[in-house]
Amino acid sequence: MTERSLVRWIRRARELGAAGARVVAPRDVVCADWVRMKCQFGCDGFGSSRLCPPHSPTPEQTRRVLDGYRRLLLVHCTHLADVTGLVVRLEREIFLDGCYRAFAWGAGPCRLCRGACQFEACRHPERARPAMEACGIDVFATARRAGFPIEVVRTRRDRRNYFGLVGVD
Predict the structure, then answer these.
(1) 110 vs 9: CA distance, rounded Å
(2) Which domain holds residue 82?
């Protein structure tokens, strides 16, 4: 993929509703075991779908997948509801543009079936993607490395920042 194409995909992410997007190298995406522990002990979505731990890829598996890419798009949104749908759509458009390895990671637990698919095959494989954090990606460290704002949300009035990722080439 050319630099010009990457600029086009960054612009497209904004058109789809992202607050911003940046190209990152695999080495700039931080994976850590503690991230899955935060899912297991702190998220009410743990184990609620086939996309959440313990069913999602481990940090080690995720690291190997990420290292198979040359460049990824880190997409910044200010509303959780926007992230996964946006990166899945971006993944599809990038795929149709000839990047057959395009793959998206979203944010938060899957809400497509409201947990009804926990023990059965996914009903929406074309739209369902694991969250970055479910795969052991340290979203805070990754966003900060890319120069995006992200802080712990302390009150309901605090600004929220959500991120998705698309492997490009």
Answers:
(1) 24
(2) 3-167
